[in-house]
Predict the structure.
Amino acid sequence: MIAENRLVVSGVVCNLPQSHNSPAGIPLTRFTLEHRSQQVEAALPRDTFFKIIVVAAGTELKQAAGKLQRGDEVCVEGFLSRMSYREDEARLALHAETINKQQA
């Protein structure tokens, strides 16, 4: 079984990152990333737009995310997983492994 789950998304920070600790004491920071681009599908241009929640776990990523402001352009690399482990929860989040602020 192939178990690839990698995602790289660039976009604009929509809201100020919010931090809290998990029940296990792990620092978690969340923010919303908005992506807009034009992609090619079936040899035709297609405008794409979506918003996704980014979850940054751990002290290092909390510090990186904590420096972000609304409107900052960033590139986030990580993996997709559910927002929560409640059985009926189907929303996905991008769990960050790197957050790079783009230079203006």
Observations:
- Residues 7-11+20-101 form a domain with the OB fold (Dihydrolipoamide Acetyltransferase, E2P) fold (CATH 2.40.50.140).
- Residues 59-66 form the longest helix (8 residues).
